[in-house]
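Hi support team,

I'm filing this because I wasn't sure whether my run with zinc ion finished correctly. The job status page said complete, but I'd like someone to confirm that the output block is well-formed before I use it downstream. Pasting the exact inputs I used:
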Amino acid sequence: MHNKGGPKSSKRRLLGLVAQSMLYAAPIWEQAMTILSYKKELETVQRRGAIRICSAYRTISRDAVQVIAGVPPIELLVLQREPWLSRKHGVTTFHLSQALSGRGCFGKYLHFIEKKEDERCWYYEKNDSPEHTLFRCCRWVGRKHKAEAALGVLL
Ligand SMILES: [Zn+2]
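And here is everything the job wrote out:
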């Protein structure tokens, strides 16, 4: 699946949950989780699924992608087998994953991966980060004010 376009995160999540169904009625996984190499393999498979769910870059950390995708750590699934992060709202997208993880088209990240000479935003302001883009950038401040007016809160 491509990061941009394709199925929405809810459909991607369904595919991810199908992959996790391997844990159903399998107490053997609990013992397997005590062996580090098996645990790492399961975590790797789960991380890849979580990346597909929320359309994140593959360089995102396991912890970050699990939070964004709403996928509980495999260890918790195995040990507790209880729902975790069963939110009923919030659709994750390619751009939302970038904003939440900080890994995306932000000067700070692009500079970090040596794709850009400095951390400035496209409008030459300093320290382009998700926070800058969402709350301070001169390009988006008009939309921020409209959202504040519509919601009746200060962002
Ligand atoms: Zn800016």
